[in-house]
Amino acid sequence: MTLVGNNLFLGFWTVYAALGIAQVIFQFTLSFSFVVAGLIASLNLFQIALRHVLRSPVSFFDTTPMGRIMSLRVQCS
């Protein structure tokens, strides 16, 4: 092969390597953003659920079997 052929061949591999590296960076960024978005969404859902449970009326816990068990436990202490 000539010098021009070698440079052309290396040029193709450089383009393919650059595309591969760009794909890796894009995929990592996309995956990381999905993880962060999922974490934020789950924390928001948990905070809303916790807020509603803590602000629910006591009568709900008195009529619910788990509420009765917990209230008995508190009364025995």
Explain what you see.
It is built from three helices and no strands. The chain has one domain (3-76). The protein starts with a helix and ends with a helix. It is rod-shaped, with a radius of gyration of 30 Å. With 77 residues, the chain is mainly α. Keywords: ATP-binding, Membrane, Nucleotide-binding, Transmembrane, Transmembrane helix, Transport. Pfam families: ABC_membrane. Residues 15-71 form the ABC transmembrane type-1 domain.
List keywords for this structure.
91% helix; mainly alpha; rod-shaped; 77 residues
Brief digest:
This protein has helices spanning 3-54, 58-63, 65-76. It has 77 residues and is mainly alpha-helical. The protein has one domain.
SSE layout and pairing:
Blueprint: H1 3-54, H2 58-63, H3 65-76
Biggest sheet character: none
Strand fraction: under 5%
Structural class: mainly alpha
* Helical amount: over 70%
Average predicted local confidence, pLDDT: 81
Compute the number of strand runs.
Answer: 0
Overall morphology = rod-shaped
Distance between the termini: 90 Å
Give the low-confidence spans: none
Helix and strand pattern: HHH
Task: Give the radius of gyration.
Answer: 30 Å
Number of domains: 1
The number of helical runs is 3
Pfam family, one: ABC_membrane
InterPro entries: ABC1_TM_dom (IPR011527), ABC1_TM_sf (IPR036640), ABC_transporter_C-like (IPR050173)
Protein name: ABC transmembrane type-1 domain-containing protein
Keywords: ATP-binding, Membrane, Nucleotide-binding, Transmembrane, Transmembrane helix, Transport
